[in-house]
Amino acid sequence: MSSDRDLRAFRAAAHGGPITDLVVDYGSTLTSRSDPVDRRLGMRPVTAAAAATLRAAAATGVRISLLSNTSPGQDRRRALHTAGLADLFGDRVFQSRELGIGKPDAAIYEHVLSILDVGRDQVLCCGNNLANDVYPAVLLGIRAVLLATGPPSGLPARVTVITDITGLVRLLTGTSPTHTVTTGETR
Fold first, then answer.
1. What is the pLDDT of residues 78-95, one digit of tens each?
2. Which of 34, 135, 163, 165 qualifies as a FRET site for 48, CA 20 to 30 Å off?
3. In what order do the strands lie in the sheet with 123-127?
4. CA–CA gap between residue 92 and residue 115 (Å, rounded)
5. Could you give the domains of the chain?
6. What's the half-sphere exposure (Cβ side, CA atoms, 13 Å) at 88?
7. How confident is the model over 69-73, as a mean pLDDT?
8. From residue 138, how far is each of 4, 11, 110, 173 by CA, in Å?
């Protein structure tokens, strides 16, 4: 478990202030495209690295939520339960199919902020899709982390790129990254 001192690096002014909530995407963020779809779940399962990362992130004291576009019949809660992560999310699983609105519509992000009852500056969104997971968050003043092989061109300010999901906890704790971390933020 990280101490408050460990968290100061990410909570410092250079990063925009304290992070109390982590909102993660599902497909290709918590899953791997190389894994087959689990027929029982109707989707790819959460990877072991993602599960370990989410547990470590929760240990830093942040609240974790899921924000995912879903198809008919998909319920990400089943996959979170199967991975042993349901307790980390509680009732903070936001699925487009249930809400009738999906990413990249800013309204779904506004809905999540309202339900979580937190300020935009306290939230960090993490996803693998620049158009769906990053741009809408940044346009609303939410900090974002893009999970990608490297920084794409035109990366907006307040966005950090990590090449591996495990880099997420290193951002939250301010510990030295073992994976490339790049920021689009002008300092």
1. 999 999 999 999 999 999
2. 135
3. 93-95, 63-68, 21-24, 123-127, 143-147, 159-162, 181-183
4. 8
5. 4-183 (3.40.50.1000)
6. 27
7. 93
8. 26, 18, 12, 22
